[in-house]
Amino acid sequence: MTNLKEIYENRRAVNFFDKDKKLDNNTLENIINLAVLAPSAFNLQPWKIIAVKSEEAKKRLHPLAFNQPKILEAPVTLIIAGDKAGYLPDKEAWSTFAAQAGKEGTEGAKQFAQILYDTTEERKIKFAESNGGLLGMSIMYAAQYYGVDSHPINGIDFDGIQKEFKLDENQNVVMLIALGYFDKSHELYPRLKRYNYSEIVSEI
Ligand SMILES: Cc1cc2nc3c(=O)[nH]c(=O)nc-3n(C[C@H](O)[C@H](O)[C@H](O)COP(=O)(O)O)c2cc1C
Questions:
Q1: What is the pLDDT of residue 162?
Q2: Residue nearest to atom 30 of ligand 1 (CA)
Q3: Where is the signal peptide (predicted)?
Q4: CB-CB contact of 7 with 141 (8 Å)
């Protein structure tokens, strides 16, 4: 599907995945490599992904997602993690920013990032989760482009997943995204109402 409007209109949180349809690795790589064009603060890309593919790993994740069946049914579930410390001056990703901004510009940006994010725990979490959330959305639309269905999941034990999958203490679990193919033997519930411009926008 190449039309962006259609991609938006057709993406759904698909509750039932066809257990017999695998997601080939090449398609998964294509999805991720397209999705990483998502924007991030200072282009720091403070995210990591664990692709839960094996039956053994799915069984460990399942109870940590309140036994939602899609964890076992989807061929792959991604754990999206955002790095609360991803703005610190020693992070390698600053090199991607420096390639354009130069040494002096990058030093200034590093200081600015410290002011923006280093002051409170809440700001660190905001940094990790806003960037990680954008990656998550980008993955779901990239998946749709490659004809793959998705489901975002936050009905989870965030800390439990962080521990069970041995994520660094700064790597906050942002969300899970199940990927695969809709099981057409089920009916997808109708699209729920969205609030439109006049309902959510106030002009000033
Ligand atoms: C951050 C986030 C967390 C969600 N968590 C769950 C979940 O744990 N279980 C579930 O069944 N649906 C979950 N959903 C799916 C939403 O219910 C769904 O996206 C919404 O009803 C709109 O439906 P649509 O995506 O098909 O348009 C989640 C969606 C988002 C964005």
A1: 98
A2: 152
A3: none
A4: yes
Q: How far, in Å, from the CA of 177 to the mean position of ligand 1?
A: 10
Cα–Cα distance for residue pair 145/148, rounded to 1 Å: 7
- Report strand pairing: 149-153 vs 47-52: unpaired
Q: Taking the CB of residue 164, how many other CB atoms lie within 10 A of it? A: 15
Q: 101 lies in which domain range?
A: 22-180
Residue 200 lies in a domain: no
Ligand 1 shell residues, CB under 6 Å: 12-13, 68, 152-155, 175, 191-192
Tell the residue nearest (CA) to atom 1 of ligand 1: 154
pLDDT digits (tens, 9 = 90+) for 1-22: 679 999 999 999 999 999 999 9
Tell me, what CATH number does 48's domain have?
3.40.109.10
- The mean pLDDT value for 139-147 works out to 98
Asked if the model's pLDDT at residue 101 lies above 70, the reply is yes
**pLDDT (0 to 100) of residue 2:** 76
Residue 84 covered by a domain = yes
Specify the residue with its C-alpha closest to ligand 1, atom 27: 12
Predicted local distance difference test score (pLDDT) of residue 1: 62
